[in-house]
Amino acid sequence: MQFGVFSVSDITVNPLSGVQISEAQRMKDIIRIARHAEQAGLDIFGLGEHHNPPFVSSSPATTLAYIGAKTSRILLTTTSALITTNDPVRIAEEYTTLQLLVGGRVDLMIGRGNTEQVYPWFGKNIEHSISLAVENYALLRQLWDTENVNWEGHHRAPLANFTAVPRPLNNQPPFIWHGAVQSPQIAEQAAFYGDGFFHSHLFQAADHTRDIIQLFRERFSHYGHGTPAEAIVGLGGQVYVGTSSQAALEEFRPFFDNAAVYRSAQSLEQCIHDTPLAVGSVSQVIDKILGYREYVGNYQRQMFLIDHAGLPVDMVLRQIDYLGEDIVPVLRRELEGQRPPDSPADPPQHIAVEATNAFLSRIEPFSLPSNIKPSVHVALPQDFVTGTSIYPQVPLSEGLDDLQKTLRKRNL
User: Per-residue pLDDT tens for 259-271?
Assistant: First the structure.
């Protein structure tokens, strides 16, 4: 199972010091956080995409490429890239370029974005966000799977005999996650293609998360990609760890009160009770995260929002140390110990990364000399559960044939 951290890249006033850091410093801090996550033994670092204040990450592919040059092992991802307002041609080109630069250490989470004013800045309408997500992703898949693309749709200019360059590494595109907060159509889209589904899992009640992931698993199986247990699922979440429960609450409370997304919550304690937010001692945070499995089943990726609401970078690095030293090792042992044989342990990885990991696993471990220090509940429309789909209903045999063709194209 993969564990990692992600940043939404907000620039928020530190409520303790009253200081708001510069954009340049925020970018430096994000690089530092990603490198520290690798040093702490985490598996993945993710970065969001935003085009409005108070965020700084408008070009995650650029930043992730820089992080890739400063790291050697950690997997890089978006959390998430905007499939609605970006041109699919540019997504195809930028993320295969990133894939080549980092030797396959990248996958791609795509999402619609929920900031209404951003859409018209890119000539789009948020009311068309589902249609944009469906059409743009279909084109992205075609750009990666086919060298000479002839295409015509509703949301961009047609393409005639077009080849996206560079081509995916070893003809294997990055693995795709479809990220969503509350949209069953996106769970359906992920299931249709047999991709991964990532639920933001930050502010929603457990029954909402359970329902949408159950929907994804059922539809994944319906389209012939495997059993519901074989569907690839990821979760977000936010943690803050202290030396004790009381210490964690006292330290995190000013940042919780400072976060715009939590201002509708009655209190920090109520939010901890009602949502996946985990704030407490090491043992309390472990118990809360282990409880996620009770309503989503076995899953393959857990990522934590780590640097939100003005948290200074030193506090963020300390949280990563808690994760790497005290929390993730226990979670790996407990969650993998309960995983049945038919549930994948990890999401698919690029063959180049698999080869590197296989090589590294044969290297004898060593120790550094002692003088060297390593640097809101929303009900789901039931018609999606009972069979209504934005995609054509195809026989399972046809779905399997299509899947096999795709796998052959990607040399899997």
Answer: 877 776 779 999 9
Query: What is the number of structural domains in the chain?
Result: 1
Determine the pLDDT at residue 123: 87
Task: Dig out the tokens for 50 from the structure.
Answer: 């935003």
Residues 142-167, mean pLDDT to the nearest whole number: 95
Strands (E), 97-224: 108-111, 149-151, 159-162, 176-180, 196-199
* Domain contains 249: no
pLDDT at 391: 43
Give a yes or no: residue 255 inside a domain.
no
Q: Are 63 and 57 in contact (CB under 8 A)?
A: yes
pLDDT tens column, 313-355: 999 999 999 999 999 999 999 999 999 999 998 998 887 777 6
Range of the domain at 198: 2-238+292-409
CATH number of the domain to which 38 belongs: 3.20.20.30
Q: What is the pLDDT of residue 400?
A: 42
| Terminal-residue alpha carbon distance, the chain | 21
DSSP, residue by residue, 261-308? GGTTSS-HHHHHHHSS-EEE-HHHHHHHHHTTHHHH-S-SEEEEE-S-
Q: Are strands 81-82 and 75-78 parallel, antiparallel or unpaired?
A: unpaired
Q: What is the pLDDT of residue 127?
A: 87
The residue behind tokens 């939404």 is 8
- CB neighbours of 203 closer than 8 A, spacing ≥ 6? 181, 261, 275, 376
Report yes or no: 77 and 46 within 8 Å, Cβ to Cβ: yes
How many whole angstroms separate alpha carbon 116 and alpha carbon 401?
39
Kindly report the CA angle at 111 between 106 and 114, in degrees rounded to 5? 140
In 10 A of CB 90, how many CB atoms? 11
